[in-house]
Amino acid sequence: MTLIKRVGKALAVIVVVLAVGGFASHQYVNHVEKQRPIVTLAKHPEKVLFFYRDDCPDCQSIFHQIYWHNAISHNIVLINMNQPQNRHYIQKYQLTSVPTLIHGKQRYTGTNQQRIKQIVGD
Question: What share of the chain is helix, strand, coil (3-state, %, to 5)?
Fold first, then answer.
């Protein structure tokens, strides 16, 4: 077998592995998005709060960005407002819509990538 054929086969294997890995990671993040844990914020005083609903199209459009930023920095608390026991945060943080990010005195509601980066500290 020539070197070119070996390299071609190796590249084909790498492409398949990356495609399968990318699909699997995408599915995993979608699974995380649908989780509805009860969140206690007293444990996270310095973190960015990300309020979302797993059935909200705008929230879904930015969830992967938020998730992967958090996977690296560990500075975001994901709060699914479809969990009834998380709904007391609506009054506490005067939430009117999702997605909403809060970090200290900074607050942003929406999907603008630049504003999100400013809040999460890219």
Answer: 55, 15, 30
Query: What angle (nearest 5°) sits at the alpha carbon of residue 65, between those of residues 115 and 35?
Result: 120
Give the residue extent of every domain in the chain: 35-120
pLDDT tens digits along 13-39: 777 666 666 665 656 666 565 666 677
**Is the preceding peptide bond at 99 cis, omega within 30 degrees of 0?**
yes
Residue type, 58: D
Q: Which has the minimum average pLDDT: 2-11, 60-69, 74-83, 104-113?
A: 2-11
First to last CA, the chain: 47
Joined together, the tokens standing for residue 23 give: 């699909």
Quick one: tokens of 120? 């999460």
Structure tokens at 104: 């200290």
- Residues 6 or more apart whose Cβ sits within 8 Å of residue 8: none
CATH of domain 35-120: 3.40.30.10
pLDDT digits 0-9 by tens, 39-61? 777 666 689 999 999 999 999 99
